[in-house]
């Protein structure tokens, strides 16, 4: 077995979300499809906080196969509709962090679906500060060139 394959296998064995996927750790499942599944977060920001995960192990968005991203997005959309009908929140935060700088705490791609109520006291708000138009255009140019 190649070193890269051995490392990937070891990472999967240690990954809490892979262990949940494989039934080695308990979870409260909400929905499941061929390439993605949804579970209740055991550390919910609000009641009804759901995680949508890919079945294939990928550390973050940058490592993810396009098909798995599409599957996770489709399931997130479906579960969000269930949250809306079942819990009637005032809104919903869809959060995905890729990497430590984005506050990703488990190295397996996942999306948070967090029901929100007005005055719930939870965060995700920031002060709007206008960007420099030249800097904005320059960043857009670098991104376009890299596509």
* Strand order in the sheet with the most strands: 1-2-3-5-4
Percentage of β-strand residues? 15-25%
Mean pLDDT: 91
Instruction: Report low-confidence residues grouped into runs of 5 or more.
Output: none
**From N to C, what is the helix and strand string?**
HHEEEHEEH
Q: Gyration radius, to the nearest Å?
A: 18 Å
Give the overall shape, derived from the CA principal axes: globular
Cα distance, first to last residue? Answer: 34 Å
In terms of structural class, how would the helical and strand content be classed?
A: alpha+beta
Q: Could you give the count of β-strands?
A: 5
Helix content: 25-40%
Instruction: Summarize the main sheet.
Output: 5 strands, antiparallel
* Count of alpha/pi helices: 4
């Amino acid at each position: 077995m190649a070193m890269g394959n051995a490392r990937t296998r070891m990472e999967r064995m240690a990954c809490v979300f892979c262990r949940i996927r494989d039934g080695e750790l308990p979870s409260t499942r909400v929905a499941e499809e061929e390439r993605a599944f949804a579970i209740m977060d055991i550390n919910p920001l609000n009641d009804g906080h759901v995680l949508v995960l890919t079945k294939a192990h990928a550390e973050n968005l940058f490592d993810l196969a396009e098909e798995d991203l599409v599957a996770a997005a489709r399931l997130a959309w479906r579960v969000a509709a269930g949250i809306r009908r079942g819990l009637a929140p005032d809104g919903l935060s869809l959060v995905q962090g890729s990497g430590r700088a984005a506050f990703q705490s488990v190295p397996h791609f996942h999306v948070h679906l967090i029901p929100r109520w007005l005055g719930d006291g939870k965060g995700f708000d920031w002060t709007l500060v206008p960007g420099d138009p030249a800097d904005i255009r320059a960043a857009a140019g670098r991104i376009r060139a890299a596509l």
